[in-house]
Amino acid sequence: MILHGNQRGGAKDMALHLMKDENEHIEVYEIRGFASENLIGAFNEAYAISRATRCKQFLYSLSLNPPPDEQVSTESFKKAINQAEQRLGLDNQPRVIVFHEKQGRRHCHVVWSRIDSSELKAIRLPFTKLKLRELSRELFLEHGWAMPEGLRDSHNRDPRNFTLAEWQQAKRTGKNPKQVKAVFQECWNISDTQSAFANALKEHGYILARGDRRGFVAVDFKGEAFAVSKWVGIKAKDVKAKLNEADKLLPFADAKAHMANAMAATLQKAQEQQNTAIRERQNQLEARLEAMAMQHKQERQNLEQTQDIRRIEETKTRQARYSKGLRGLWQRLDKFREQGQKHITQDIQQYREIQQHKRDTFSMTDPQKHRGRGLER
């Protein structure tokens, strides 16, 4: 079960988003810890309490998406929700659970209030993505589902490790800016040193490098530069405080060239995979063609045998029509004369058809070439 969560503000927008009519079926399964009995009222309560704090993103939204072909019970969803609540540190916080069904697929949304009403402060949520990823792995193992490669091993999400199909998909879909920022912030939060941050970015397919203007950038597989301070969302001086060994990093141009070489190897591998697939397909087609040719040959032989048998049977049937002795001999002679006349009639008809064909050919050519010539016989 894939778990994706983020902090949010906007009580009304959140409620309207959960109640969109684009879903075939919407079920508000639970409203806990709120006085109101509807989503807008509940989220407005959370907003009102948040006004006593400095918190702008007073809600935490979590989506739970099982594999497309799996049917998950409500109890299994609720068990996963309770586990996520405990690991995130949102125990007994007011929450809302909503189920959506779209095109036969059922998934779930949970929204908690982050505001601790007893102390009037927002609950901190550190390392949420790591916690949710670990729980997601456990849920896949618990239910015996096929785990996505990117969830099983984060290195498989590195574009330099793409298979041919994954590479083609990456070219089609591009990158989501929100996901890019989330990756940078996650790598920054889990890293204490420059080396740790560089390794964390590398797992996601980025190379940490020195920028041309004394800043720090991350280079992706397309050679695009992402300013670290911008995408992490902190000041440049705070970035320099942690990344204090700039001389150990490659300049941007060298990092870009290094990434290009790595991607060239990946493309070469993808090309080899494609060539192998083409050769296998050709071999399959040739084998099918050979089998089809053998089948057709056998069918022709069977047809010829059937026609020979029928010809012999028809000959026997015709011979049986004649009488025996002298009378039979006279019948055969008379039959021969009849067949001769028939052949003459056929020859005359064939001659007429040939002549007609010549006349047709003559009429479709240039008449100047035939002036002065007599009509053909």
From TrEMBL:
Q: Which residues form a coiled coil?
A: 267-309
Per its UniProt entry, which superkingdom is the organism in? Bacteria
Keyword annotations for this protein? Coiled coil
Residues covered by the MobA/VirD2-like nuclease domain: 22-145
Give me the ranges of the annotated region Disordered: 356-377
Full protein name: MobA/VirD2-like nuclease domain-containing protein
List the InterPro entries hit by this protein, alphabetically. Endonuclease_MobA/VirD2 (IPR005094)
